[in-house]
Amino acid sequence: FYRSGGGRAGTHRAGPMEPGRGPVRIDPAADSSDGAADEGLGEDLAPVNQKAVEQLTKGLISHYLPDLQHSKLALQELTQNQLVLLETLEQEISKFKECNSILDINALFSEAKCYHNKLVNIRKEMLMLHEKTSKLKKRALKLQQKKQKEDLEREQQREKELEREKQLTAKPAKRT
What we know:
mainly alpha, 1 helix, 68% helix
């Protein structure tokens, strides 16, 4: 346990650990300036030299700080790599979305091609029907003209026959 205040500190029962060594025993007589004030600490706690605490703290920090800094750099690198991976993943997702939209576009083009073929067939049929109707109109016109000609010829024939009948009928002679 460490206690702050009054420039005094207690020790851990097992003693602080130094790198490469076992527990360190702190000699209460090493700190001669604190001799009178140590009477109220109790039998379990031994007085600690402030300089020793600072040196142990510096040693502990110097022992673990490089590893902690290395770990910090490694974590920063991992975080950066994660960000790169996330960005790459987002790009891949957008590529998949583009692929899906391309598939949709391909389906639309296939459908458009099918409908285009249907339109081409309908146009061909319309042109064929137009040609047939044009031929039928021409034929109907020719038939109508032929009928009119025949009707006209019949009418003329009738008129000729009537005229001939008139000429053939006896006319009373005039007395002179």
